[in-house]
Amino acid sequence: MGRHAVLSASSSHRWTKCTPAARLELEFDDTQSSAAAEGTAAHALAEHKLRKALKMRSKKPISPFDCDEMDEHTDAFASFVLEQLELAKQSCSDPLVLIEQRLDFSKYVPDGFGTGDVILISDKTLHIIDLKYGMGILVNAEHNSQMMLYSLGALERRKRDAGKRRS
Known about the structure:
Elements: H1 12-15, H2 20-25, H3 34-53, H4 68-89, E1 96-104, E2 113-121, E3 126-129, H5 145-166
Antiparallel strand pairs: 1-2, 2-3
């Protein structure tokens, strides 16, 4: 398991409302619940399916959580991403698809980074697509601090990449 940012995008719903929470969480062991492990397995499967659909190399992950429901959910996720890609191609000849992309937003949040499931960049649109798997917690896309931070990281990446192309 990789290093996590203290002020991570995924925990921003906590630390933006209670800043000390980020440091307090460091006092506890970083253990993974069964639900989190299942979510990780769903993300790996979705990544594999998307890479295969985009004709990229990928080895299917093996998981004890494999089930029809996860298969259906990850199929729907991959289909949604492909639909968004086709829409982007209507106004951009070469949209960029980034899968499981590390996004650095440390310009705005000290040591801030996270991993975006899918970043779709076309000429005039930045589309952040995040797989949510599981039940119990409703996640609203509007005013979502995680997506806002990922957007900042994706915009910084776009600026950095544009600067490299001009050099």
